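Researcher: I'd like a structural prediction for the single chain below. Treat it as a standalone chain; there are no partners to consider.
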Amino acid sequence: CLLGGIYVVCKCMLLQLIDKSCVAMFCLIKMTVLHSWMTLPPAIRVSCPVGEQVSDWNEDISTLPGQISSCLFSSEDEVNQSSRHDKERGVFTIGSFSGNIPVGLAWQSRSERTMDGFLYGVVDQHGQFTGDDIAFIYPDFLTGLRGSFVDGVLQNATAVNVVAERCNNGVKELKLEPSPYEKGTIWEKEETNVTYIGKNRQVMDPYERKSVYVKESSNPSAKEGLFAKRKFVQGDIVSYYGGLKLFVEDMNFDNMTN
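Model: Treating it as a single chain, here is the predicted structure.
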């Protein structure tokens, strides 16, 4: 069972797309292996050649994560012309730029930590991730949510798998296909509270589906346990757990004593 080898962190987040105000007692529990937050290095490089060059699609599923991440991360200490680091927001944007505004196909980290994933797609005329064909790419680089986003915030989307990658004019391009599971499930921005815990509360997160499963625990007193479907390395997200936002008014009543 994985629970002995991980720790639980409480953070206000729904894929970093919904609510950044930590007013709640807890909104989402993320379980990560060991204790590393996997902060992005101070530079991002683009290994794809810059220019009018489109490579062949790479459809080898075993190499996709490495090929994609090698395009995004670097140990170099400078941000090159193909990326911008917004220190105030704590995000990296990778792509082609007009001044400091991204144009065309682009990537943007959700934070300075690899575990929080990336926005991916063709930005609008303002350089924002707004449109009906924007995707959130999970940190495994094999799973995503594609659909409607406004300024990088999820409106509604369906699960997709990353099935191929290539270099397209200096930017890493992905080929996405609908996930074969829960095809009718629409993921939306939702605000949970004491009486509402979300419409997809019994649906497995698409990343989680590839990562873990529940079965009878090897600990007799634990009943059920969480087990790994795949190998994890330090800093990997193991699972997402949704929770309830509890505000002071939800817990304190006029007839309560001090």
